[in-house]
Design goal:
Elements lengths: L1 H28 L6 H10 L6 H8 L3 H13 L3 E3 L12 E3 L1 H21 L5 H22 L5
Length: 150
């Protein structure tokens, strides 16, 4: 039982560290930070735009973090906000600009290549089992955490 705990926590920790290192490496080559990756990724997958609240939920980031990321993306010309009668940006939908879409295409290409490389020597059946089990563990841990009072 303890061995399973060690394998799970060590494995996930190593995977997370590797993903962060890959993000930092590739994003610095694009002049971006690793924190921008997921926002650009999700904005690219939702052409109608996303609010800051949407991105908080999707990226698993807090409101302040997403606000900083969106400010940086806007300052670099990667996003723009839809016109709204409400002056509050966190309620307005952000969309990628043409420049943001170009960067998203480059990011998606890097993501695809990394996923292919990371999945080398893994059968489709093993991959399907892995993701099903990972999803189940995540769901179970979320249910356990729901009982905590933060």
């Amino acid at each position: 039982m303890v061995n399973r705990f060690e394998k799970l926590t060590t494995g996930i920790s190593q995977i997370y560290k590797s993903i962060q290192k890959i993000k930092r490496h590739h994003m610095s080559s694009l002049g971006l930070k690793s924190t921008h990756v997921m926002c650009i990724y999700y904005l690219d997958s939702c052409p109608d735009g996303l609010t800051a609240a949407d991105l908080c939920h999707m990226c698993g980031e807090d409101k302040a973090g997403i606000s900083r990321i969106l400010s940086e993306l806007e300052r670099h010309g990667f996003i723009q906000y839809e016109e709204s009668g409400d002056s509050k940006k966190y309620r307005a939908k952000a969309r990628l600009t043409p420049n943001g879409k170009r960067y998203a295409a480059r990011i998606n290409k890097l993501i695809l290549q990394t996923v292919i490389d990371a999945g080398d020597n893994i059968t489709d059946e093993d991959r399907e089992i892995f993701y099903r089990v990972l999803s189940t563990i995540s769901k179970n841990l979320n249910q356990i955490c729901a009982h905590f009072n933060d």
